[in-house]
Amino acid sequence: MSMRTFSSYLFFIFIFTHVSLTADYPVSGKNGMVVSAHRLASEVGISILKKGGNAVDAAVGVGFALAVVYPYAGNIGGGGFMILHHSDGTNTSVDFRETAPEFAHPEMYLNENGEYLPSLSREGIISIGIPGSVAGLHYAHQKYGKLSFEEVILPAIALARNGFELEFYQAELLNSFYDEFCKYESSKKIFTNNGSKYKNGDLLVQKDLASTLELIKINGPEGFYRGETADKIVTMSHKLGGIITHGDLENYSVIERKVLKGSFNDYEIIGMPPPSSGGIAVIQSLNIFENFDFAKQQWGSSNYIHYLSEIFKRIFADRSKHIGDPEYYQVPVDVLISKEYSKIIFNEISDTAASAETIYPGDFNQIESHETTHYSVIDSEGNAVSVTTTINSAYGSKIVCEGAGFLFNNEMDDFSSKPGEPNQFGLIGSEANKIEPRKRMLSSMSPTIVLKNDQPILILGAPGGSTIITSVIQVLINVLHFGMDIKQAVDVPRIHHQWRPDRLDYENFGLSDDVISNLIKRKHIIGNKRIVGRVQAIFVDQEQNVYFGASDKRGFGSAIGY
Ligand code: GLY
Question: Measuring CA to CA, which of 23, 72, 178, 341 is 20 to 30 A from 198?
């Protein structure tokens, strides 16, 4: 672990154990609910709902607001996925994942000996994918929103132009990346306090970002992918030795995709299809889990943790081989999410012994025929929106686009730069996710909506790279199987396993000593204490017609209902 990563880890451990800004109970509302990673963004969403906007208007307003108040992850320099459930019963998804630049190629992060150089895909100008957020949010609004685009983007512009007060944790987070921001004049200008560190209560004013958002307000995506902002992006890339062209920006396109559908007992699961692995991983896990007959009291038992981690290993093994951008690789979606395949996996799991070396991605010939931010919104009519966006690492590439005021992502690291080499999340990949021009990199983002009787009952998602998948699955099981209330389901400790490395990580107070010793007896390798995801979720009490929101205690977000 680098010193920087280590100090960030210590910071989060400190915050996690000493501070809680979020409510300890589910927040309720009868007319609407917005849950996001920042209070000001959630307030923007609620104000849009109160003005008569629908859930899509609110979600788009929240997305742009997060780009201002949550530069750690919310940003117009990244991309994401949106799942929508309309009150008429239809579902759809919007894919605004970043793409590889046209001059990207499979060897771009290898040296002359063919060795992978991780720093190239994770840091600096060639780690940047072509951003999709502006196009995606605008697309969703134009097609499904009710208010004018101006009305939904104006609150973000005001927050950028007038500034907002940094809370303690935000000042500390920015300060913890001070050295990295100082490497680039454009980043130092925006994300240091005139070259110094921030204090609690300092005002963060982002005038360049306000001007960029103003251009988007006037011209829509053309205000970002062409003209002044596009020129700034290409100039910045060129100056630092990058490869982004005007053609890359002009050719960026949003894809509306058919959602993935699965079921878990009486519930219908609506998930994101590839190029995210999230929907497949969530549905596949729940399918396998359906084969178990757990008693309620088993939550947290060594038996439960054993099965959970054995399931996680198998879905991550499949992710490593079978999932990539469907425009470039034929993903066997139907098989992966079939109940039949899940039964085969279930039957492989031993009651008594963990497996790792013996787990490989599934061989389907045996059968005929798995830093970021999330927000969840529901309106009074039952329209529900689940959005996860990312710039990948904390503050993405740490490079602010000069004169445009936003941070670029470092999403290229989500490709498999070399088969078998882990990316920053330790995830390994293969041919399905190799780098190709204009291809979308594989994601773990898992925006999810669960329906019961065709109506939303859960809307959720999380940031956290590979831990997105394992967080979302555990919260789903906590509610749908163990019957926890939404706040409890989100806050109780989680575990994480992603097959490689063979390591069962867990949260503080997550595993008691006797559970650990039982797991060791079953040959599990106990890993590190760490934070596993930060979930933003809404539960709908269909009988009482009340919305309950929960923002994860691991973060500093906010659930607001009305
Ligand atoms: N950048 C994290 C993900 O998309 O999975």
Answer: 23
Q: Where in the chain is the domain with CATH 3.60.20.40?
A: 257-371+446-555
Dist CA 496 CA 499 (whole Å)? 10
Whether the CA torsion 279, 373, 527, 319 is positive or negative: it is positive
What are the φ and ψ backbone dihedral angles of 409, each rounded to 5 degrees? Answer: -75, 170
Q: DSSP assignment, residue 553?
A: T
Q: What is the pLDDT of residues 492-531, one digit of tens each?
A: 999 999 999 999 999 999 999 999 999 999 999 999 999 9
pLDDT at 474: 98
From atom 3 of ligand 1, which residue's Cα is the shortest distance away? 443
Which atom of ligand 1 is nearest to 414's Cα?
1
Closest CA to ligand 1's atom 4: 443
Catalytic residues, by residue number, are 372
Give the number of the atom of ligand 1 that is nearest the alpha carbon of residue 468.
Answer: 5
Q: pLDDT > 70: what percent of the chain?
A: 94
Tokens read off for 433: 């996710």
Predicted TM-score of the model (pTM): 0.94
**CATH architecture observed for domain 257-371+446-555:** 4-Layer Sandwich (3.60)
Q: Would you call 551 helix, strand, or coil by DSSP?
A: strand
Query: Count of H helices and E strands in the chain?
Result: 20, 19
What stretches of 272-333 adopt beta strand conformation (E)?
none
pLDDT at 365: 47
Rounded distance between C-alpha atoms, residue 459 and residue 59, angstroms = 13
Q: Tell me, in angstroms, the distance from the centre of ligand 1 to residue 444's CA.
A: 5
Query: Which protein residue's CA is at the shortest distance from atom 2 of ligand 1?
Result: 465
Helices 339-348 & 302-322 angle (0-180, nearest 10): 120
Q: Give how far Cα 475 sits from Cα of 299, 313, 350, Å.
A: 12, 18, 24
- Please give the Cα distance from 146 to 383 (Å, whole number): 12
pLDDT at 292: 85
Residues with CB under 6 A from ligand 1: 372, 390, 392, 411, 414, 443-445, 465
Short-list 469, 474, 475, 480, CA closest to 446: 469
A 10 A CB-CB count for 514 gives: 10
Which ligand 1 atom sits closest to the C-alpha of 278? 5
Rounded Cα–Cα distance for residues 426 and 495 (Å)? 16
